[in-house]
Records
---
Amino acid sequence: MRARKAMHASDEAMVLRVPRARAAASNGRRKRQSLKLAVAGSVLLAGFLFITLSATGRAGSADPSLEAKINYCKDCHGPSAQGYRGYFPIPRLAGQQPEYLENQLRAFIEHRRTNNIMFNVAHSLSPAMIAALAANFRDLNPSPLGGAPRGLVATGKRIFEDGVPDANVAACAACHGPNATGSGQIPRLAGQLYPYLINKLTNWDKERGQNPVRPDISAVMSPVAHSLTKPQMEAVAAFLSYLR
C-alpha cells in the first residue's frame, strides 16, 4: 500500500515536473531569442551611430579658417587657382608642388623673395596653415589660360627639351621633368601664365635669393635666367603656358 502511494506520489511529481521543464525550456528559448534580438539591435544601432558620426565628422572636418584662407588666395589667383592675366600677372597655383609652395611662402616671410603684398599675406600664416594651403592647391587642375603667341611654341619646346647649348643653358626638362610638372622644391611650370614666366625670368636676380644669410635653391636658376635672351624667354614661356 505504501509502495503504491509512493509510486503515485512519484508519478504526480513527474507529471508536475514535465510541464515545468517544458515551461523552463520555453522560457530559456525566449530569453535566448530576446538576447539575440538585443545583440542584433545593438549591432545595428552601433552601425547606425558609426555611419552617422562618420558622416558628421566628414561634414564638419573642413577647417573654417583654412577655407577662409583658400578663398582669400582665390580672390587674386582665380577661383580654381588658375592665375590671373592682367596688367600685373598673378601666377597659377593649381597643381603646384606642395614643397615648392611652402618654400616660397617662407621665402616671402624671410625676405629671400621680394614682394610686399605676399609678405603681408605669408607672415600671418602658421606652418600648419602653409602646409594645408599647399596641399589644397596641389589637387586643383584647371585648364591653362593660354593666350601666348602660338608661333613661339615650337621654339620654346626645343629650348625646354634641349636647352641652349651655345649659351651653356641646360634643358629645362632636366630639372622640371619631361612634362614640366616639377618635383619637391622644383616648381611645376606646366600651365603657368605666359607673361608671369617672362616677368620672373627677366627679374630673377632682383626678386629671388635676396637674403644672402639664407641661400636657397633659387641660385640654380640665376645663371639660366641670366643667359637666356628675351626672345628665348618668350618662346619657352609660350610653350609652357599651354602644357597641362
---
Amino acid sequence: MPRTAANLQAIRPPSRVARADRKQVPRARSTPPDEASLQTTTRRIAEAITAAIVERRLMPGTKLAEQKIADIFKVSRTIVRQALHQLSRDKLVTLEQARGARVAQPSVEEARQVFEVRHMLESAMIKRAASELTPDQIADLRTHLRDEQAAVQRTDVTGRTQLLADFHVVLARMLDNEALADILRELVSRSSLISLMYQSAHSAEHSFAEHVAIVDALEKRDARAAVKLMESHLLNVERNLRLNPRVPDLESVLSPEN
C-alpha cells in the first residue's frame, strides 16, 4: 500500500483565478488574516482531505506530511495542523507523537460499531422521511439517483463513490436537521474508509438499485417498507466487508507437504 508523500497529490485544493501581474499592481500592505478567514482555510483543507479519503484517492495508512500539505495549499503548517486535529476528532486521521499524521486504519471492531450506529440512526431517519418528505424533495432525490446511475454507467469510480455516500447525507439534510446530517456525514466518511480496508468485490449497481427502491417506498409514504429496505441496504454493505477473516491453521500453512 503506497504511503509516500507523493500520495498527497490526491488532495486537490479548489482552483484559483490567476493573479494579475505583480509589476502592474501596487503591493498592498499585508495584514494578518482574521479568525473567520483562518477557519475557512482550515475547513477547506479538512474538506479536501476528507473528499480524497471518501473518493479513494488517499488510502488508509497514507502519511500526511504537514509541510507538503502546506505547500499544496500555500498556507502555514499551523493551519494544516489545525485541519489535521479536526480530522483526528472525526476519526479520519490518527496523530502520533513520533510518526505524525496518517490516514486512519479502522479496526474490525470499530467497523462493526460504525455500522451499528448507522443502523440505529438511519432506521429512525428513514421512518421520519417517509411521512415528512415533500413531492419536491422526492423529485430532488430522483435527480440524485440519475446522477448516481450516470456515474455507475460510465464507471466513474470517484464520482459514484461520492454520490452513493452522499445519498444518505442528502436524506438527513432534507429533514432540516443539520446535527443529524453532520453526524451522518462523519459516519459515512468513516464507512468509506472502512470499505477501503475491508470491502470485497462490491457492486455499485446493486447499491444504486437499493437506493431506487428506498426512494420508491418514500414516494408511496410506506414507512414500514422504507425502513426494511434501508436496513437491508446497510446489511448488504456490511456483508460485503471482510470483517470475519479466516484464521489459518498453522500446520496447514507451514507443513512442508504443502
---
Amino acid sequence: MCVNKILGFSTLGFVLLVAFYSNANYFIFGHTFSGGESATLLTKIEMMKIESQLAQKDLASNATNAKEHAELITEHVTANDTKEINERNPRLATELNNTLSDFVKTFESQSPSESAVKDKASTLGDVLSEVVSARIDKQQLDNVTVKAQVVNDIVGETLEHYNSSLGMSEGSHDKNKTSPSNSNETKIVDQADYDSAQGAVTRAIDLYNEIKPSGNANSTELVNALNSLKDKIDSKSPFDQADKIVDDKITPMLNDMFKLKLAVEEAHGAEGERASSGNDTHK
C-alpha cells in the first residue's frame, strides 16, 4: 500500500516537473517560429552575406558601390527581427545591431582599410551564423521545404534588384504597365543593384543544387530555368524576359516539387509576410 502511494506521488511529481519545464521554455522562447518565418529570416541573412561579399569586392575598384552594398545590409533587418532575436538571446540582438553599425561606419571613411573591412565582415558573418543557431530550430533549418522557400525568396530578391538596377520603380514590372523592359535594349542605371541581382541568382542556384531531388522530371528542368534567369540578367536582357521565366517556370516547378502552395504572381515577393493559417504562403 505504501509502495503504491510512493509510486503515485512520484508519477504526479514527474508530470508537474514536465509541465514546469514546458512552461519555462514557453516563457523563455516566446513562441515557436513557423517554417515561413524561418525561411524569411534565412533569406535576409543570405542577402546580408551577399551584400557583405560585394562590399568587400568593390572596395578597391568602386568605393561608392561598396558603401551602397554595406548600407543595403542594414535594410534587411527590421525592428521586429531584432525583437524576435532578443526573445531567444538578448545579448545577440544587441551584438547584431552593433556589428552592423560598425560595418557600415567603416565605409564612411575616405579610404576604408581593406584589412579592417575584411575583419569586420568576418565578425558579421560569425554573428549572423550565431543568429541562425539561436533563432531557428534545427528541425526547420534542415527542412527541405523551408530551404525551397528560401530559394523562392532569393529569386524574388533577384527580380527586385534587377528591377531597381534598370531604374524601374517598385511594381513597375506589372504586366499592365509600360517600362524600359518592353524595349529590346536595357541600360543599367544602378550598378550596385545589378551586382546584387547577379549575386542573388547565383546563390539561388547554389542553394537549389543542395536540395535538388533525384528522380523528379522537373528537377533538371528547374536547374535549366534558374540558369536561364541568370543568363538573362548577365546579358542585361529586358526585365519582362527574366520575370517571365520566374512566373512560367521557376515558381510553378518549385510549387510542384516542394508543395509550397505559392500564388504564381505573388510568389516572388521576397521577405514578404506569410499567412499562418496552416500553410506558409507568400504575400
